[in-house]
Amino acid sequence: MSEAMHPAAPHYLPSFITAPGETDVLFTGAVIFLVLAVMGIGSLYFWLHSLPERMSHGTGQLQFQLVGALSLLALFTHINAFWVAALLLALIPVPDFWTPLASMADSLARMATGRLRSPVAEATSEQAPEVLVNYAQIKVEIAPPPEPKEAARNGPLDEAAKAPSDPHQVQAVPAGGPER
Questions:
Q1: Which of the four pLDDT bands, split at 50, 70 and 90, describes residue 121?
Q2: Smallest Cα–Cα separation from 45: which of 23, 74, 18?
Q3: Residue 113: Cβ within 10 Å count
């Protein structure tokens, strides 16, 4: 074949037309650009999908796991409502209800028994109960109620016998209120 141009062909050819057997630079550049664009858009997509999870990273464990599960559901099902729910859950701080309740339970347990609430203490609940009186622990022993015949035979006690020996001890008051 001759290298001379055909008489009907234009004398000036654009640069993107390559001679036979040479490398097509425009096609190679377009393929590289397309691969980089797809990888960049994919990275942006995954970065955007992980946004709620990254936002909730400093929150509580339960909220973080719930946001992560919603983000994964949105990623695999392509239902955008899951992603919006994950984003809203990550933006709204969920209050911690458990820590104050556990602190109150520990304080009440300490006030009632003088020790912290623990699984070992809860397991051994068959011991005698302990009560704090004047910030000192005492064991409470419950005496059986007196026989009805014995109470009637002894008669009513006078007021001096009813007075408690300890000033901090609670005195029983009749149901109708104190007598006047």
A1: very low
A2: 74
A3: 15
Spatial separation of the C-alpha atoms in residues 107 and 101, rounded to whole Å: 10
CB contact at 8 A, 64 and 57: yes
What is the C-alpha separation between 49 and 45, in angstroms, rounded? 6
Q: Which residues contact 24 (CB under 8 A, 6 or more apart)?
A: 18
- pTM exceeds 0.70 for this model: no
To 5 degrees, how large is the angle CA 23–CA 26–CA 31?
95
131, containing H or E segment: strand 130-133
User: Tokens at residue 79, please?
Assistant: 């239902």
Q: Given the structure tokens 């397309």, which residue do they identify?
A: 34
Which residue in 101, 47, 36 sits closest to 75, CA to CA? 47
Contact present, 86 and 70 (Cβ < 8 Å): yes
